[in-house]
Amino acid sequence: MQGLQEDLRLHRSRSTFDEVSKMTVEGVGISATARIKNLSPDTVSRWREKAGEHARRFNHGLLKGFELTELQAETFVDCRLKPIWILTLLEVWSRLWVSCVVGRRSYRNVKEVFGVATTC
Description:
48% helix, globular
């Protein structure tokens, strides 16, 4: 666990990082999370990116060779002024996030999020 904390270069406790990650999953925005946890919005944003990168590495490295029975596509938008789209593909039965792309709402990103499903 210490290795992950060093890898993330956290200046706060690992439990604070985990709580911020849980708040993100529950849909709490960056500004609200920063106020609640007494953190800078930049820190919350950076931690979200780091958590996402670790999740992507886990998915790409360990989640191979399983059968997808039913998929559900979701989109989330963050920030009204400059939207950041989070496109996800979930396996319905297990609620496993099969794929996730963060960026603009574009054909390329939609194609990328669905492209991962064909390789599982």
